[in-house]
Amino acid sequence: MGRPFVGLAGKILDRALSEAGIDRSEVYVTNVVKHFKWEPRGKRRIHKKPRYSEIHSCRPWLDAELKAVRPRVLVCLGASAAQALLGTDFRVSRDRGKVIESSLGPRVIATVHPSSILRAQDDDSRHAQFDAFVKDLRVVAGLVREDKSALRSHKAAQLNKSPKSSIQRSSTEQATSPQNSYRS
What we know:
The protein is mainly alpha-helical. A hairpin with a 7-residue loop joins β4 and β5. The longest helix has 39 residues.
């Protein structure tokens, strides 16, 4: 298994993440299908849509990754990922950029696959699709910021609720403790 999103689609993903305010080094990226099925087109190798049997065969690995990573926000890039995880009735064209109820994680969202931007008819379409992709990723960035803020608030509340340690003593107790009153 190679590294996901390292080609042209990966460059688009990197640029879009950056424009959305998401640090790629804080993102775990994986594929629903763990092998690269492709067809030659000129000098390029174009991904082929995975069959249901291939998605089903790779699902245990994906489930293990999700269990290990426990993402705060799970983002499905493209129809194959979204339908593999959210069901075959899911349509990225209809529900992209929306938070979806799922047992997969606290927040799940789907958007287009970056390679779809590469297949746009012309530069104007490519720019419009890229902007829409960044808009979807900004929703993700907002969800992550909300989650981090809530986590900080929760931790602060827990610190304020915790009883004072028995090691902490008032200044009067410290002044009268044997070690502070001892003089040679």
